[in-house]
Amino acid sequence: MSNIVAIVGRPNVGKSTLYNRLIGERQAIIDDTSGVTRDRQYGLSEWNGKTFTVVDTGGFVYGSEDVFEAAIRSQVQIAIEEATVIIFMVDVMTGITDLDEEVAAMLRKSNKEVILVVNKVDNSSRMMEANEFWSLGFEETYFLSSLSGSGTGEVLDLITEKLQDDTKLESDLPKIAILGQPNVGKSSLVNALLGEERNIVTDIAGTTRDSIHTKYAKFGKEFLIIDTAGIRKKSKVSENLEFYSVMRALRSMEEADVCILMINAVDGIEAQDMSIFRLIQKRNKGIVMLVNKWDLLEKETNTARDYEKKLREKIAPFNDIPIIFTSALNKQRIFKAVEAALEVYENRSRKIKTSTLNDFLQEAIEKTPPPSHRGKYIKIKYVTQLPTYYPAFAFFCNYPQHVKEGYRNFLENQLREQFNFTGVPIGIFFRKK
């Protein structure tokens, strides 16, 4: 189960600033103009050994106050349905508004874990003013400044206390999730594989509202297919249905061992596809990329080799993944996609003996030793694979903090070439001997 933490509240209370702080990256655009967060941001956060997805709700389009208020109400409702923990953010500088009261009433009626966060509390006089927010009736009320970061540690501690322990889909079979924007052909692929109209296929984006689990058992192969709701393009994400769909898709991603990311050959890889790709990578899932609707392109001006080269340049540095050109409608190369996904599953499960690892890597390290740091020579003593659910390796050396990023990439490439980790993100850690 994926733990989702949703940040809700009026425009311009500081949701995006808090989101950036929780995920540790400057991803959301921050501006004093209300409605800047037009698309929702999805990021990964880790605290106290727990990992969770943070959703910065936005998706506002410019319009009347009524449109704003309706958008806020509806996304609060979806957060109530889908999120594990809800952060309700208010602004000490404006005090309690009518809309704050309304959102508070909706949240109080729900059975969800709600943390009320009063933002922009950065001096003693504002601390006094913030006390009025206790009247909203939330036991978990915290004062903080998302800009300076004061008070966010306590909120993170509370979030992790409230998160549920991860429960995986109970099955020993490989679990393959099919992800991508709406109307890219995910349901058509599932139907083509199963040879039946398992899913409704229409030209209306957003038909698949929920993830569907289906067992595939044909031609000596067995696995579970997770067909997810489409992840909507940014410009259209304001539809409530799509916000709901993305929340569900995030859960499906968590359940999967391998994610098949489908892109539309005609449109090419778009910003939203890249967001999905990086989310899969951050979660250390196996990845296969399908370029669907390949039959619709003019072959005179588009060759698979050129198209693939451009794709790999865009997804770099992690571009060691299978890329397959398909037409789900014509059943073109769909079984090749299945074979690639199962091969990536094997690669993700691969365990290498410590002796085999060291024999190979000592030779590579002797040929290309790590660069010295300020006259200090770095010596890597040995390497071992960590007992994680994805391939991760610990290199023990005398100065782990001084190993440069370039050398880390060199070691990763050596492992990929020798042991075949195609389609799988690799974790590399340096530890003190």
| Global structural class | alpha/beta
Helix content percent band: 25-40%
Query: In one word, what is the shape?
Result: globular
* Main sheet summary: 6 strands, mixed
- Listing every helix as H and every strand as E from the N terminus to the C terminus, the arrangement reads EHEEHEHEHEHEHEEHEHEHEHHEEHE
Q: Tally of extended strands?
A: 15
Compute the number of helices: 12
* Order of neighbouring strands in the sheet with most strands: 2-3-1-4-5-6
Distance between the termini: 36 Å
The gyration radius over C-alpha positions equals: 24 Å
List keywords for this structure.
21% strand, alpha/beta, globular, 15 strands, six-stranded mixed beta sheet, 433 residues
Protein architecture, described:
- This protein is α/β, with parallel strands linked by helices.
- 35% of the residues lie in helices and 21% in strands.
- It is built from twelve helices and 15 strands.
- It has helices at residues 15-23, 65-82, 98-109, 124-130, 152-162, 186-194, 240-255, 271-282, 304-315, 334-349, 354-367, 405-419, and strands at 4-9, 41-47, 50-56, 85-91, 113-119, 141-143, 175-180, 212-218, 221-227, 258-264, 286-292, 323-325, 380-385, 392-397, 427-432.
- A six-stranded mixed sheet has the order 2-3-1-4-5-6, sandwiched between helices. A six-stranded mixed sheet has the order 8-9-7-10-11-12, sandwiched between helices. The chain has a three-stranded mixed sheet with strand order 13-14-15.
- α2 (65-82) packs parallel to α3 (98-109) and α2 packs parallel to α7 (240-255).
- The protein is globular and about 65 Å long.
- It starts with a strand and ends with a strand.
